[in-house]
Write a structure and sequence with these properties.
Blueprint (H helix, E strand, L loop, with lengths): L7 E5 L3 E5 L16 E2 L6 H7 L22 E9 L9 E6 L2 E2 L2 E5 L2 E6 L6 E4 L7 E8 L10 H14 L18 H4 L9 E3 L2 E3 L4 E2 L3 E6 L4 E12 L4 E10 L9 E7 L5 E7 L4 E8 L16 E9 L2 E10 L4 E4 L11 E4 L2 E3 L1 E6 L11 H13 L4 E4 L8 H10 L2 E5 L12 H18 L5 E5 L4 H9 L9 H15 L5 E2 L23 E2 L2 H4 L14 H5 L12 E3 L8 H7 L10 H5 L10 H7 L6 H25 L6 E4 L22 H9 L3 E8 L2 E8 L5 E11 L4 E11 L3 E9 L6 E6 L8 E4 L13 E9 L2 E8 L3 E7 L6 E2 L4 E3 L4 E7 L11 E4 L2 E2 L2
Parallel strand pairs: 25-26, 25-32, 26-27, 27-28, 28-29, 30-31
Antiparallel strand pairs: 1-14, 2-3, 2-4, 4-10, 5-9, 5-14, 6-13, 7-8, 7-10, 11-12, 15-16, 16-19, 17-18, 17-20, 20-21, 22-23, 23-24, 33-34, 34-37, 35-36, 35-38, 38-39, 40-41, 41-45, 42-44, 42-46, 43-45, 46-47
EC number: 3.2.1.25
Keywords: Glycoprotein, Glycosidase, Hydrolase, Secreted
Subunit structure: Homodimer.
Length: about 850
């Protein structure tokens, strides 16, 4: 290989930064009184000032307000670098910023290279002519929303939505401060993450700066511009597949006799090779593979990945090389007629129907540039351990880092990928916005199209839903129609032609449901916000509720006939240990100023109406943590079980939300410190490939079995109804044989509802997790004292086992740790009388104290 022909990448990381009043010329940075601070790159100004000790952490206490000044300043980044060595005639030298956040001007050696206003696509500048032996690079980040005024389409939509919800609003009311983000009518005009300006789950801490890597890239004129490895067909029975490999090059290379050589190597080491001529700006070849090792989600098989190497050859010289890892798999969206009417919304992986079990992914911090790859991997591993086979990357955040998608590929987790548009009408008659949307889509599709995990490209979050609510129609117009129904689908067809494009989430096209079909129950996906918000969001089931609490209660899920539930959730607190790290001890009381500052939903006591029914109202911070965790865990358990019983009429549930952008009181299953909540474990059990669940209706107790796997399941289920006093009311043994992708009643009996009893089902062979049904709300249960006996056994430098037993029924039995990275094989589970459970504990700090592991339950403490 001729080394001088190969692409070379020289990272630039050693930046310093300072700030000035806005709209200053570059000469201002020469002022001797300016203070320059080492910059975190990739990262942002908040991370940099934090590292320098110049600001307090914006997540702690009420410090969010103390950093508001930062979004109104110009921020200057500066570095110097030497010219790349050994340049040869014909080399191209390009300065590549993989992510600039967001409004920025760039100078090299005093010459302005250009201007950029999109954090979602790179800024690239050819710099051959400007290079000297030593080079000075200067960037100016302007205030992200400078120069913008509220977008008329967004304001008009927001005003109509507000008036529909609150008819008595005055005509002159300023609606621009309403909604999930007060700046949304302005921010929708700039290609920056809209959650930057605050949302109902996070603070207003808008990231600014160099948030992705910077490189000086030296390439020969002959280089690979892009590649796509696409599975055209796959037969898992015969182990064969047809795969198309396409590469994109400079059209000027046509006719020069160049070739591309492809090496595709399976996990077991079998290599397939092919050579193709370069006779145009693109070239492709088809590989017929045998002994294929398919990529599956982790619950259906192995997420096998092939190594790809593509070499661009000029005679015997290798001009350029790209490497990748891909999965051999096919994925489609089945929208055929559903058994109960309407149409299915069912993902089909390698020919097998998938019940999507997962959650909505948010950025792992508002400071998006400094999230380390280890955090993405840690969270993806938690998703896999929680039984999840899909995450939806939400459209109000960011296109995630490569490390996120690599972890999804490796862990066998599908990705529903939104484009980054959310919750406002977009002025699609703005030619610059359309151009940015097109360039952004092309870049992101080409970047991610080879990922085995990408299951769907989705136009936006809730834009059609809100537009329809405001105008009762979705006709073409200046609200984003051009973006979501022309620009984005055309980009997907061009750059990832075998992929599925979906116009928005939610979206549906069932005519009889009228304009609410977009969030209806007969077609497409829906956001089930009847629960928690308490209004009919499209389920149309028509119940009447006497109280606000009943209208917000998770029992409403039982009336939802949706095809695919892409958002649903209930608020809860993180563990007390997490709150203690981010709220001062003096403020650790319910509804203290600092406590309420960490809850961005409104009103701050919104969940009280639900708690009043489920647990009663909390009087202490400890009760608040426990009670909200109970309502969330019980709600997620109830909802997931209901939706899975409807398989295949319902084919997916994605909980809102998986993770947190900061340490707040939110809908997340895993808090900002990566501590799973009780609901994470409840969802994990409900997300097992096979589950048993109870329904009690009109005096009959029924046991359902649900199988979302590829194989028939044959097992026994032990059913019992017992009293909390230990008395046995009923016992039975059920033999079950269940087809794959099916759900049905396998047992039923007349049982009177009583708060004093509960139903229990267990699997002696471990085919499904134990499960139970309470016949009353938790506050009305006569739970016993719940005295537990436990022992901790150290099994390694960072691991232990905790054995727990009880003579009485204990509810939400748990092990807690003061170390936020600690992982438990299970937690927050019910323990029937006489049962013994052993919990494996890992990722403890080296030399941990066994006394750090504390055992307790909702109704009692350990001894």
């Amino acid at each position: 290989m001729n080394a001088q022909l190969a692409t070379r990448r020289i990272p630039l990381t050693d930046f310093v930064l300072t700030h000035t009043d806005p709209a200053q010329s570059p000469e201002v940075v020469e002022a001797p009184d300016l203070v320059w601070t080492p910059a975190v790159v990739p990262g942002g100004v908040h991370e940099s000032l934090l590292a320098a000790g110049a600001i307090e952490h914006p997540y702690y206490d009420q410090n969010e307000a103390s950093v508001r000044w930062m979004e109104d300043r110009d921020w200057w980044y500066r570095t110097t670098f030497r010219a790349p060595a050994d340049l040869t005639p014909g080399d191209e030298v390009v300065l590549v910023f993989h992510g600039l956040d967001t409004v920025v001007d760039v100078w090299l050696n005093g010459t302005k290279l250009g201007h950029h206003e999109n954090m979602f696509r790179p800024a690239e500048f050819r710099i051959d002519a400007e290079l000297g032996p030593e080079n000075d690079l200067l960037l100016r980040f302007s205030p992200p929303l400078a120069g913008l005024t509220p977008s008329p389409p967004a304001v008009a939509q927001l005003r109509r939505v507000a008036r529909a919800l609150m008819p008595d609003l005055p005509d002159d009311l300023d609606v621009t401060a309403m909604g999930p983000s007060p700046e949304l009518t302005i921010a929708s005009q700039r290609r920056k993450a809209v959650f930057s300006w605050g949302w109902d789950f996070g603070p207003r801490v808008p990231s600014i700066g160099i948030w992705r890597p910077v490189e000086v890239v030296v390439t020969p004129r002959a280089k690979i511009l892009g590649h796509h490895v696409r599975t055209d067909s796959l037969d898992t029975k015969t182990g064969t597949a047809d795969v198309t490999v396409r590469i994109e090059v400079d059209p000027a290379l046509a006719g020069r006799g160049m070739t591309a050589e492809i090496h595709l190597t399976s996990p077991s080491g079998r290599t397939h090779r092919s050579t193709m001529p370069i006779d145009a700006g693109e070239a492709e070849t088809r590989l017929s593979l045998t002994e294929v090792e398919p990529w599956w989600t982790h619950d259906l098989g192995r997420p096998s990945l092939y190594d790809v190497r593509i070499e661009l050859l000029d005679s015997s010289d290798v001009c350029d090389v790209v490497t990748d890892r891909v999965g051999i798999r096919t994925i489609a969206l089945n929208r055929s007629p559903a058994p109960d009417g309407g149409r299915l919304f069912q993902f089909v992986l390698n020919g097998a129907p998938v019940f999507a079990r997962g959650a909505n992914w948010l950025p792992a911090s508002t400071m998006v540039g400094s999230v380390p790859p280890e955090r993405h991997r840690q969270l993806l591993e938690l998703a896999r351990a929680g039984g999840m086979n899909m995450l939806r990357v939400w459209g109000g955040g960011i296109y995630e880092a490569d490390a996120f998608y690599a972890a999804a590929d490796e862990n066998g987790v599908l990705i529903w990928q939104d484009f980054m548009f959310a919750c406002a009408d977009y002025a699609s008659d703005d030619p610059e916005l359309l151009r940015e949307a097109q360039l952004e889509a092309e870049y992101q599709i080409r970047r991610l199209r080879n990922r085995a995990s990408i299951a769907l490209w989705c136009g936006n979050n809730e834009i059609q839903l809100l537009h329809g609510f405001a105008y009762q129609e979705y006709e073409p117009g200046n609200w984003g129609w051009e973006i979501f129904h022309r620009v984005l689908p055309e980009a997907v067809r061009t750059w990832d032609p075998s992929a599925t494009y979906w116009p928005g989430s939610p979206w549906g096209e069932d005519t009889p449901e009228g304009f609410m079909a977009v969030n209806g129950v007969l077609d497409g996906d829906r956001h089930a916000w009847e629960v928690w918000h308490g209004f009919d969001a499209g389920a149309g089931s028509g119940e009447h509720y006497e109280t606000v609490g009943e209208a917000r209660h998770f029992r409403r899920y039982a009336h939802d006939r949706g095809r695919f539930i892409s958002e649903f959730g209930i608020h809860s607190s993180p563990e007390l240990s997490t709150l203690s790290r981010w709220i001062p001890a003096s403020e650790l009381t319910v509804h203290s100023p600092s406590f309420d500052a960490h809850n961005k939903d409104h009103p701050k006591d919104k969940g009280d109406a639900l708690l009043e029914i489920v647990t009663g109202l909390p009087e202490t911070i400890e009760q608040y943590v426990d009670f909200t965790m109970v309502s969330q865990a019980e709600g997620m358990k109830f909802g997931i079980e209901h939706y899975r019983r409807r398989q295949p009429n319902c084919s997916g549930t994605l909980v809102w939300q998986f993770n947190d952008v900061w340490p707040g009181i939110t809908w997340s299953l895993i808090d900002y410190d990566t501590v799973p909540k009780a609901a994470y474990y409840a969802a994990a059990r409900a997300y097992s490939p096979v589950i048993a669940s109870f329904v009690h209706h009109e005096g009959t107790l029924s046991l359902w079995m649900t199988n979302s796997g590829l194989d028939r399941v044959t097992t026994n289920a032990a059913v019992a109804v017992r009293g909390f006093d230990g008395a046995t009311v009923l016992e039975d043994e059920v033999s079950v044989s269940l087809e794959p992708s099916s759900s049905r009643v396998v047992w039923s009996a007349p049982v009177s509802a009583s708060a004093h009893t509960y139903a229990w089902v267990g699997s002696g062979g471990g085919a499904f997790p134990d499960n139970r049904l309470f016949f009353a709300d938790v506050k009305d249960l006569p739970l016993p004292a719940g005295n537990l006996r436990s022992t901790v056994t150290v099994t390694g430098e960072t691991s232990a086992e905790v054995s727990i037993e009880s003579d009485e029924f204990t509810y939400l039995t748990r092990v807690t740790s003061p170390h936020p990275g600690t992982r438990f094989s299970d937690n927050y589970f019910d323990l029937p009388p006489g049962a013994v459970r052993t919990i494996r504990v890992t990722d403890l700090p080296a030399g941990f104290d066994p006394a750090d592991l504390v055992v307790g339950s909702y109704n009692g403490a350990a001894r």
